[in-house]
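ok new one. same drill as before - C-alpha cells go in, u give me an amino acid for every spot. 166 of them this time. try not to just spam alanines like last time pls lmao
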C-alpha cells in the first residue's frame, strides 16, 4: 500500500513539473527547454514585469501562454517547409499547441552565447505561442516578444540579441 501511494505521489509530482515538450528535431533542444523552464518558473515575475512596463498583455492571453509553456510543444521545421520558405524564423497556427521553429533559427543564433540563445528562444516561442493563442496579426506576438526580451534582460545581465545573424 505504501509503495502504491509513493508511486502515485511520484507520478503526481512529475506531472506538476511537466513542461512543454521540445521535439528532438531541434538541434538546440536543451537551450529551448531551459528557456521555457525559466519563463514558466518565474511566470508571476514576468506577469508583474510586463504589467509594470506598459505591455498590457491581456489576462486571457497570459493564461493561454502559461498553458502553452506547460502543455505545448516545440517542433523544428525544415527551411523548405511552406511556412518557413519565406525566410521566417517560426510560425504557429491558431488553436494549435505547437510553436514551430524554422531550422534557419539555429544558424541565426549560432554565434550567440548561452544566455543570449536561451533568451532568444524564450522570445521566439512566446511569439509563436501568442499566434497559437489566437492572435494572427503580428502586433500582439511582437508585443509579447518585446516584453519577454525586456524581462529577460532585467533578469540576465548582459543579455543581447546582437549576436543574431540576420
Ligand atoms: Zn509572428
Amino acid at each position: 500500500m505504501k509503495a502504491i501511494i509513493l508511486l502515485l505521489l511520484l507520478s503526481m509530482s512529475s506531472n506538476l513539473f511537466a513542461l512543454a515538450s521540445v521535439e528532438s528535431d531541434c538541434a538546440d533542444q536543451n537551450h529551448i527547454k531551459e528557456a521555457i523552464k525559466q519563463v514558466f518558473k518565474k511566470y508571476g515575475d514576468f506577469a508583474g514585469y510586463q504589467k509594470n512596463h506598459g505591455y498590457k498583455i491581456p489576462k486571457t492571453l497570459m493564461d493561454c501562454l502559461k498553458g502553452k509553456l506547460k502543455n505545448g510543444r516545440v517542433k523544428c521545421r525544415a527551411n523548405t517547409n511552406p511556412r518557413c520558405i519565406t525566410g521566417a524564423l517560426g510560425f504557429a497556427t491558431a488553436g494549435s499547441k505547437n510553436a514551430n521553429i524554422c531550422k534557419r533559427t539555429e544558424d541565426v543564433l549560432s554565434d550567440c552565447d548561452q544566455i543570449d540563445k536561451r533568451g532568444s528562444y524564450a522570445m521566439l516561442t512566446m511569439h509563436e505561442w501568442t499566434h497559437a493563442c489566437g492572435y494572427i496579426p503580428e502586433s500582439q506576438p511582437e508585443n509579447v516578444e518585446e516584453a519577454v526580451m525586456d524581462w529577460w534582460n532585467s533578469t540576465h545581465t548582459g543579455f543581447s540579441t546582437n549576436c543574431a545573424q540576420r
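Residues 127, 131, 138, 141 surround zinc ion (CB under 6 Å). and btw The domain at 19-155 is CATH 3.40.390.10 (Collagenase (Catalytic Domain)).
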